[in-house]
Amino acid sequence: MARLGTVREGGQPHLVPFVFALQDETIYSVVDEKPKRTKDLQRLANIEAQPRVTALVDHYEESWDLLWWVRVDGLARIVSERPERDRTVELLAAKYPQYRDEPPTGPAVIIDIDRWRSWPADR
Question: What was the pLDDT predicted at 37?
Answer without folding.
Answer: 67
